[in-house]
Amino acid sequence: MNALALNLLGDLEVIRDGQVLALPPSRKTRALLAYLARHSRPLSREHLCDLLWELPDDPRGSLRWSLSKLRRLVNDADRSRLKADRLGVSLDTTDIDIDVIDLHALCQEGLATADIEVLEYAACRYRGPFLEGLELDRFPDFHAWCLTEREAAMRAQTNLLTTLVGRLADKPERALPHAHAWVRLAPFDEAARAWLVRLLLALHRPREAERQLQLGTRLIREAGLPLNGQLLRAWREPKLAQGPLEPSTHTAIPPRPTDNERPSVLEGDTLEVMRWAALLAPELDPATLGRVSGLDTNRIGMALEVAERHQWLTTGPQGLRFTRSEVATELYEAISPFRRQAMHRRVAEWLAEGPLNDMHQASSLAHHAHASGDIELAARALVEAGRFCLRIFANQEAQHFAQRGLALIDDMTGTRRVCLALELHDLLYSAAPLADWEAGAGEVVALAEQALEHGALAHARLGYQLASHIRWAHGQWSDAHEQTLQAERATRCGERREQVIAMAETARCLAMLERDLHQAAELLAQALELAIQHNIGHPAIPLAQGLLSLHEDRFDQAESYFKEARTLCKAMGDKLGEFQAQETLLLMDFERDEYAPARDRCAQLRELGKRLRDGSEAPYAAAAEALCHYALEDDPGPFGVALVTLRHADARHRLAVLLLQAARLDLARMRAESAKHRATEALEHARVLERRSEQLLAHALLAECARRLGDTAGRHQHAQAAEALAREPVAGWARRRWQALLAQPAAEDEA
């Protein structure tokens, strides 16, 4: 077996050394890989661009981007399989195992003479239709090629299964799984169903055989196809040496009716209910069946009674279930594709009508919306499912839903695609830090610009603010400042609610950045006025109020605002906002030297941080708790250990805040060298972030350290730097702390 395998039957898979590789999210990129794999000759770039891209999408640029992603998948350090030059592109598949190529090769070489084990291995590799879910019906040439390949693969697999079942007829237990697979592939083929009935009878499972007889007969008749008698002959063949019947799961079995007495049970309401049950399987309940099918309670009850009497459905500890899963599978596959999509849409719309209450509901919503064939409905369902996951701290699942959504909307165009892409990026960033945050921020800004061009002002604001948060978290404060202002500009002509949120968020971000505080106060005043007039509430308002009050050294007022913001964020499911409000309350505890209540707050932050995305929140909570331990127990060891993890998280602002608090504690405990070391690192972070308040505190602490260490030149240097910063707009609490340090030598001299 080769080191690299490519599976095109079912969902596309690339496997290297037994490990399934992560595929690019772009559906067109994956489609390009499959297309190249099925063509041994080089294909022109022009042909590939026409096949998968439209002119407004910059086809040649998109092709180059897709090829760069595929090289990482198929090339090795010593083996370049993807070959591209100025004119053409090809994929060398000589040492790649490709399931569909192996299937066709086996059929051409002769199924009748191949080893049984080889046939069985090939049959097991069939995981579904060729490129399942990757038809790209908006691109007719690729779509037609995909359908042709799919039909050819299905014929080859049918021939393979037919051969397998015939050659294993004397080993019914080994042939049965292949017979089931054959029937699933060809539900209206009477010969396939006859073989299944024959094998079930040979294995002493007559009730199952009878169900297959009835189901096959009905399906073939409903499809308007003739019955040639193979099913009845399979049922009436002499059953020699069958032994006892299979044990029953019921306490009493009514005698099987004769052909004249057997009711036509899979008709009318019974058929309709069983179809909906198959669509909802494995977990069913009569209430859900009633809501989605439109049938009243009595009709559903009678249909379920018929189904239970014929042992298709059973009620156990887990509720209503199919007695055998293959019954549900065959019922589902017998529904016409268009009707099936309409049924999935009905279930998805019903689930979307109310709030999601558990992960099962979230997954069901995503599944049924995707199966409806409506890309927009499926993407919106993934957004809702992901948001629910964030509320219950299922961050990995939220990330998975976001990635699925981004891959899904690759074929959409226009305003809907841009808006959904922004919502999915917001979900992705909330679920986990970005691996390439600069590229991520750039992509979000580009989407925000497109949203602005399309007039989608609310989504433009979302994009600019998301980019601002990403850049702020990584120290690009000037870019974060510009994108914050752009978010507010984007919604000046929007609806009132969007204007309020944009102005409040902009005021909040400007206060966090300590930039344009006069403008922040003006925007906040306008937001408050509109919010009161139109009865609009949003946590950005008290967060901005709290930050501006904190900057003015009005701690009691700020505390009230941050508590209000924390409550609103919790109610809205904004866990990051809740953490940030609690984090600022903790900073106020530190500045008040109230370390006992701060330790209690740290415990709350730690629990919240553990369940948030894998960012700097949890390391910060652990380091803050260790700082409280230092303050209360005079033990600096755990704090030094916790700082290592926080440094790895690249959280410069959080590092600077905690280092400055620790330096204050060091000075109070006469550890000037340690204080100098911590304040120096804090100053470095504050300079990178252009944070004047933290720079002022760092210089003030370093001046005091130099005084205690007898470094006159150092003291003079840092004192001058602090005085210069004090003339700039800085936080009132930082100015107060600087003045206290400035007055300390004089107080000691008087004493």
What is the CATH homology-level superfamily of the domain at 1-167?
Answer: Winged helix-like DNA-binding domain superfamily/Winged helix DNA-binding domain
Q: Which CATH architecture of the domain at 1-167 is right?
A: Orthogonal Bundle
Q: Oligomeric state of the chains?
A: single chain
Q: Which class best fits the helix and strand makeup?
A: mainly alpha
Give the rounded overall mean pLDDT: 86
CATH topology-level name of the domain at 1-167? Arc Repressor Mutant, subunit A
Estimate percent helicity. 55-70%
Notes on the protein architecture:
- It comes from Billgrantia bachuensis.
- Residues 18-91 form the OmpR/PhoB-type domain.
- By secondary structure, the chain is mainly α.
- It is built from 35 helices and 9 strands.
- Strands 3-2-1-7 form a 4-stranded mixed β-sheet. Strands 4-6-5 form a 3-stranded antiparallel β-sheet.
- Strand 2 and strand 3 (19-20) form a beta hairpin.
- Helix 6 runs antiparallel to helix 7 (172-185), helix 26 (555-572) packs antiparallel against helix 27 and helix 32 packs antiparallel against helix 33 (692-709).
- It is elongated and about 110 Å long.
- Residues 238-265 have low confidence and may be disordered.
